[in-house]
Amino acid sequence: MNFKEVQQIIDSDLKKVSDTIRSFLDSKISFIGQVASYLIESGGKRFRPTVHILSARACGYEGERMYTIASTLEFIHTATLLHDDVVDYAELRRGQPTANILWGNEATVLVGDFLLARSFYALVGDGDLDVLKCVSNATTRMAEGEILQLLQTNNPEITFNEYLEIIKCKTAVLIAAASECGAILGKKDSQIRQRMHNFGMKIGIAFQITDDTLDYIIEDKTLGKTRGQDFLDGKVTLPFILAYEKSEEREREVLKSLFLKEEKDQRDFDKIYNILESKNAFNESFQHASRYVEEAKEEISFLESSYRDYLEIIADYILERKY
Q1: Cα separation of 185 and 193, whole Å?
Q2: Which of 33, 117, 150, 212 could serve as 25's disulfide partner, Cβ 3.0–4.6 Å?
Q3: Which CATH number describes the domain made up of 3-320?
């Protein structure tokens, strides 16, 4: 069984999430729905809603509140993508022109703001303070992660721990909230909530490590963005960190000079790719991701439900993305 087959099992739930998303986009200003729908419906895999629904089901929840929570998670994720693309001057997202290219930076940022505001309005309406605390904490940490990444841009000497903190905040915390909120809906105790949180955190870390590694090695049409974009944007990710740690002083100077070059081109990317490949940095990055996936599956070993198997398949899917 694969990711798509798991989603087919909860197809009726995901359709209700889509219906909820469309209802939340209802606004007197039709332009808001136009911009938001463009990204929400442009090939996203509903990864966070899927994790949330499976977690809720695995924890014994049978109600409909999960559709509201899943929708807000997707809104928050979409808002961060809109804001990221403006900050990064991105031109492609999922193989299509970014919203900021089509509608401009100002409109894109404001629609992102609307999605964040709409998310918390919906969560207040849901009325569960534990859910609200969980999601608001994740959103705060996501903002911190984006700022941390901005501060570390063009810093070739970033450490593994600094990188880990960035990807925990910018990616993993929202996935952790998705799984923890499932436990909250299931009225589980603090210990189980923590283990579900840990599961989401670890697959989130693995997800971002894999994504950062694929940025160097996968074809543009597969990833949906320009290959090597992180390097071109001055973002230091795990493959670079691993290669830099292994390098002698002379090699480090070469890596630094390539990374700090103001106008990078394809030849610069090819040079840095070859160095990272020679240091086995890509394979080692995938090994790190694999370790986090295995640790994540251990976190949910206590679950006695077929939904645990589905969550494990979701975790394994993260690694399969490299093929």
Answers
A1: 10
A2: 33
A3: 1.10.600.10
**323 residues of the chain, pLDDT tens digit each:** 999 999 999 999 999 999 999 999 888 888 988 888 887 877 678 999 999 999 999 999 999 999 999 999 999 999 999 999 898 888 877 778 888 998 999 999 999 999 999 999 999 999 999 999 999 999 999 999 999 999 999 999 999 999 999 999 999 999 999 999 999 999 999 999 999 999 999 999 999 999 999 999 986 545 556 788 899 888 999 999 999 999 999 999 999 999 999 888 889 999 999 999 999 999 999 999 999 999 999 999 999 999 999 999 999 999 987 54
Helices 47-58 and 190-217 cross at an angle (nearest 10°) of: 150
Break the chain into its structural domains and give their ranges.
3-320
CA–CA separation, 302 and 314 (whole Å):
17
* pTM for the whole structure: 0.94
Counting Cβ atoms within 10 Å, is residue 267 exposed (0-12), middle (13-18) or buried (19+)? exposed
